Amino acid sequence: MTLTVDIRHRLGAFSLNAAFTTDGGVTALFGRSGSGKTSMIRIIAGLIRPDHGRVSLDDDVLADSDKHLFVPRHRRRFGYVFQEARLFPHLSVRQNLNYGRWFAPKNERGESFGGVVDLLGIEALLDRRPGKLSGGEKQRVAIGRALLSSPRLLLMDEPLAALDEARKAEILPYLERLRDETKVPIIYVSHSIAEVARLANRVVVMRDGKVEAMGPAVEIFSQLSGPQTSDRREAGVLLEGRVEHIDHQHRLTIVALKAAKLFVPGEAAGIGKTVRVHIPARDVMLATGRPEGLSALNILDGYVLGMGVDDDGTVEVKVDCGGDIVLARITQFSAERMDLRVGLPIHAVIKTVALES
Ligand SMILES: Nc1ncnc2c1ncn2[C@@H]1O[C@H](COP(=O)(O)OP(=O)(O)OP(=O)(O)O)[C@@H](O)[C@H]1O
């Protein structure tokens, strides 16, 4: 499936002038607030008719200003997931899901009801009403509803933005399954590097209404910043993961841990191989808010699992990042200033991580 967008459009003082193509999988529209991501997804969805240009999905032309052609939203058969789940409050989860299915043409039904329920882990929620669900659960149901409409394309506009870190961590593995187990191509709008690095096959970086860069996620993010290497052995953790991708050009290995993924300098033995990575504790910084614009490629979301004070007054903090435990050593002053406590959602910024031979 190839989506081709080449448009110009004016929105007040803002002008969008962008062209890109995608080839299935997850394509992220990535960029700062105000760069034009939402306007772009609205054009793809058929909610905005572009002033000039063309949008097509394979041979199906959805908008073409030269030919005065514009296919409205309801005839595009795209699924849409917003920041807010927007479920029907008076319907049960099952009824909400069936509502999505109702839109799927009978002969083109893709995923089965049971398959979607399994994929998103929502079996136990089926008879409940949305009002009683957590934000993450609601979002999983919203994704299920969109999937059951058998969309040709799934448009997701900051689907995790309204969730706290814990709910984000809970839902990310489901989004990965969605990417890996369904054939539905996804356009994913986000301004979070961590989310995009984890989910996207391809990234379109937007800035001031234009496409600043596009390419495979690893390439794009390794261009933005480069990780440092360290051979020093010191207090830290060894984590085991699986080599998911090797970027020979940038000499980087993407290692999938239990939940998170790490960009590790160097080229590992082979894709699919189990490797161990070393993360020195003193090269892990902690942040209570999501840090932006850092050179570190690895920012893991987690919780404070435990804390202990060493003889020298250094605080050793254990952070649970989706089942992988990362250790950080910080000063007592920092710990107090950040009001660190067990259970606090936290971002672990990993400055160095090395492959173990
Ligand atoms: N209908 C409109 N009329 C005038 N200006 C608009 C309209 N819609 C969007 N804009 C402007 O276009 C710019 C891009 O907005 P857009 O929502 O596409 O950005 P974004 O990258 O999705 O940002 P965010 O991450 O904050 O959602 C902004 O400056 C916005 O104010």
Describe this structure in words.
The protein is an alpha+beta fold and 357 residues long. The protein folds into two domains: 3-223, P-loop containing nucleotide triphosphate hydrolases (Rossmann fold); 275-356, Beta Barrel (OB fold (Dihydrolipoamide Acetyltransferase, E2P)), CATH 2.40.50. It is built from eight helices and 21 strands. The protein has helices at residues 37-45, 93-102, 113-120, 135-148, 165-181, 193-199, 217-224, 332-337; strands at 3-11, 14-22, 26-30, 52-57, 60-64, 69-70, 78-81, 153-157, 186-190, 202-207, 210-216, 236-247, 252-256, 261-265, 274-280, 284-287, 298-309, 314-321, 324-331, 345-350, 354-356. The protein has a six-stranded mixed sheet with strand order 7-8-9-3-10-11, sandwiched between helices. Strands 2-1-4-5-6 form a five-stranded antiparallel sheet, covered by helices on one side. α2 (93-102) runs parallel beside α4 (135-148) and α4 (135-148) packs parallel to α5. The longest helix is centred in the middle third of the chain and has 17 residues, at 165-181. The radius of gyration is 22 Å and the shape is globular. Residues 222-234 have low confidence and may be disordered. Residues 11-12, 14, 31, 33-39, 191 line the site of adenosine-5'-triphosphate (ATP).
Oligomer: single chain
End-to-end Cα distance, whole Å, is 40 Å
If strands are numbered along the chain, what order do they take across the biggest sheet? Answer: 7-8-9-3-10-11
Number of strands: 21
Low-pLDDT residue intervals, each spanning 5 or more residues: 222-234
- CATH level 4 superfamily of the largest domain: P-loop containing nucleotide triphosphate hydrolases
The helix/strand series, from N terminus to C terminus, equals: EEEHEEEEHHHEHEHEEHEEEEEEEEHEE
Helical percentage: 10-25%
Biggest sheet statistics? 6 strands, mixed
Structure annotation, total helices: 8
**In one word, what is the shape?**
globular
At the fold tier of CATH, the topology name of the largest domain is Rossmann fold
Tell me the count of domains. Answer: 2
Structural class: alpha+beta
Note the beta-strand portion.
Answer: 35-45%
Mean pLDDT: 86
Each distinct ligand: adenosine-5'-triphosphate
CATH structural class of the largest domain: Alpha Beta
Which value, in Å, is the CA radius of gyration? 22 Å
Overall CATH architecture of the largest domain: 3-Layer(aba) Sandwich
